[in-house]
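Protein: GntR family transcriptional regulator
Species: Streptomyces swartbergensis
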Amino acid sequence: MARTTPHDHPPAEGEPLYRRIATELLGELRDGTVPPGERLPGERRLAGHFGVSRETVRQALELLRRDGLVATDRRGSHTTLPGLPVGTPASLTFPVGARAATPGTVARATVAWEPPPPDHAEALGLAPGRPTLIHRYRYATADGHGLRTAVTSFSAVALAEVEELARYRDRADGTAAAHLRRAYDWMRRAGLTLHHRDAITRLTSTPSVRVTRRVHDQYARPLEITDLVVDAQQDALVYEFTVPGRTPTPSGA
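Structure follows.
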């Protein structure tokens, strides 16, 4: 839940500061900054995020708790807004094309700290030869059919603002298993609104297709780019989209 622009709280006559913070936090919960069911950052981090004291944060959380919008247990507070819980399969899964290993299949993912492919470096605004976190994914049946491979490069912005990703740098030796299934949840929890664009192209002289996914945040800063290659003779890609329903207009309005 990172804020990248200054935040001021102009005085509002008759409205306590904690109520304004509760309103702003509720807005961030509703716009998906913190997914439904996800843990909220601690009071200290929330206080820094909003530029207020921890006591003000406590009062704001208590207000949301009384309204049934936030719950607290021994591990801290979490949102209780209705919606898909974190980890529920959706169209925006990491990496694009990822599948859970089932009997008779092999799914492997690793991370490395190395220079990305030249086209990835250009898309992410990285200087040639500059290393970054690279995620590699491979899925196949035991006989080699249904093969799909994905290579993801993360931007400097993603590593600077998403602490869960940054932690992988010291262990990114390219060999240890590293499934970053919650990478997009981590980004949203860091306060980033995700926008993605998928381009599908056919590879010449092969039965495979390439899916290139580019993800950027609400400030148009690149976060990651992934190239997925799928054996189109043995496999298929399925995209799911959810379109929010229109808010009903109250009768008599």
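Remarks: The beta strands are 70-73, 76-79, 105-114, 132-141, 148-154, 173-177, 195-202, 208-216, 222-231.
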